[in-house]
Structures are given as C-alpha cells and as structure tokens.
Amino acid sequence: MKKKLQVGLAILVLCAAAVAGWGVYRYGQISKAIDAMNIGNTTDDSSRAYDRPSIRQMKRDFFMTGYLYAFFYKSIADSMGLSGGEKVLDFGCGSGAPDIYIADTLSRSSGSLTCMDISPLWQRVARLRLAAYTNVEYICGDITSLPIKENSYDVILVNYVIHGIDKSLWPGIGKALARVLKPGGRLHINEPDEEGHSMSMDEIRVLMTGSGLKEVSLVRTKILGLVMPRNEGVFMK
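Below the sequence we write its predicted structure tokens.
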C-alpha cells in the first residue's frame, strides 16, 4: 500500500512538472510573438489605463485568458448558441479571448466576426490571437461615433466591458449597440458582480431595456458555481 502511494505521488509530481514546463514554454512563445510586434514599452504595471497596457500586461493577459482560463471563454462562446452563419460583433474585444472560439464556429459556415475596441494596442494582441482566421475584421474607435450602418449585426457580445466605463457614457453606448443590432438579433452581456468591480443586474436591465431591447434572460452566476460572480444576460431587439 505504501509503495502504491509513493508511485502515485511520483506520478503526480511528474505531471505537475510537465504542466509547469509546458506553461513556461507557451509563455515564452507568447512573449516572443508580442515582442515581435515592435510596439515598445507603454505604461508600467501600476497604470490602470485600459487603452495603454504595458507589454507585461499584454503577455500576461494573452497567457491567462488563452490557456489557464480558456474553458471559461469557450463557455461564453458556446452559450451564444451560434449556428455559424451569423454576423457577430464583439464590443470591447480586448485581447479577443472568446473570439477565437467564435471565429472558429463562424468559419464553418458563412459567418463573420467584427472585433471592436478603443485600444489599438489590445487590438494588435487580438489580431495576433486570431491570425489564423480570415473571417474577422477589426474596428478601432468609439461605437457612439463610428459610422456603422443600422441593423448590421445578428449577435453582439459585451463581455466584461461596460462596468469599466464612466456611467455617464452608458446611455449613449446602449443606444449605439441597439442601433447596430438587427431586428430579432440578440445581445449577450456578461459583467462582473463583485464589490468595487461590478455592474448590477438592475443596471444592466435599465440600460438595455431603456435602449429599446427586450429582456430574454438575466441571471447571476459564478465559474463552477464558486468564483468570479457575474451577471449574465440576453436581450433581443
């Protein structure tokens, strides 16, 4: 019995070492790829300005969202119920964490994905992540002033975006999102619900319904029912 426990422990140690080694290798690959973008150093890690991330922040985000938390972002893409032929907008795409799964689904049919963000730096990271897909376009700017045609998108994703924007700007953003969504189209929104870092269910409901969208569902949930509480909603035009 003791020998079996020792063998089991040895196997666990070897597995842990292999996973750690793989992580170091993948992070090294990501670092080289981002360094090759030649964007120079931006701000240091003490800066909280979203549109001016440091090189270290970009590398860390790419690794964490693309590997350690990949299951979470895949679940977001899966929850959108895409058939493959839709025209999808990811508003505030950041590094494009869920977009690799969305683009993959849409690539199996005639669908397309638009990644929109105010930060050209984060968009460059998203381009790196999605380089293998030809059905993706990128728009950099403020949705309230961009010349996007009305009724352009079948589905819109808003994933951990609006809570970080000044509340005085929310009404304009809500109306702009509703304007570019097609009649019968769906808007999927996920926002954190943690102290000091949140957008409440009531705030989501008021913003979306006040922008002319109808509530389909709105629930509070957590990853594996344990961590990262968030409010998850679906609204329809």
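The chain has a mean pLDDT of 86.
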